[in-house]
Amino acid sequence: MPPPHFMTLADLSVNQINRTLSHAAHLKRACKPLLAPHTAALGASSSLPPSLSLQHKSIALLFSKRSTRTRLSAETATKLLGGQALFLGKEDIQLGVNESARDSAKVIGRMCQGIFARVGEHAEIEELARHSPVPVMNALSSLWHPTQILADLLTLHEHADRFPSRPPLNSNTSVSGISPLPELTIAWVGDSSNVLHDMLVTYPRLGHKLRVAAPTGGAYQCPPEVWNRVKELGCDKGIDWSDDPMRAVHGADVVVTDTWISMGQEDQKVQRLRDFAGFQVTEKLCKEGGAKKDWSFLHCLPRKEHEVDNEVFEGPRSLVWDEAENRKWTIMALFE
Known about the structure:
The protein is of the alpha/beta class and 336 residues long.
């Protein structure tokens, strides 16, 4: 029987997503006092450490793309669970140079108990999963970025008090141990990126509405393989897609964007900046577009000012630093 792999949140049921969020919140509550400076932690003796579920185990961090948040999250999460994270960058091993993905997966899987892979094309991680004898988890691929959306969801739950007087969600989508979310309207203003793709297969299933604005043209549209998953899950009914940022932010509780120029697209910078004219997230855009007065802002980072101006990014609407930290706790929950 093949091991369970994790490519996208489309692979998880609503209950599995909620259990992961609940466990992430538990791990965060348990660990934060233990990680505080010594003097502050003296009164936290009643806090229980997480189980050392990865003791004597190793997780291979197979990264062909550079990373800050994902690498830090994975390494520190593994350490807290008693395990060892082995960072394997593209300059460190033979993969892609003198050894195939098939052979690399078989070797790594004999020596490590899991693989957390951050790759370029999604086909690369699928090839690893086909041949790995241990679970392969997607840290990022060209199509999907599931760990980012888990962190976003945990952040929104933690700040649920920002969304008063919204309609309550069905009890089947509630998460134990953290504040429940009401029904939200979430706006995406940007590229059809891996972050958006996992939003498309997740938020509608949790009872939220998703409004998307992306430039016209095939380069900015949802890939067929992603949209097929969206339709299979019945999520297309909860999505409004246009090329108009003002339409997307209308009624929005949360506004989200991401990079317009991903790694490997640097030669397209001039054209992409031209195509994204009018897509910068600003107070003016959201006011004129009719976003809720108390809308909040998310960005997975790193951020460029042409994507969102300083007033929003550094202002009270921004949840980006909590969002970044929550990468750690949600990845930790997945690992356990």
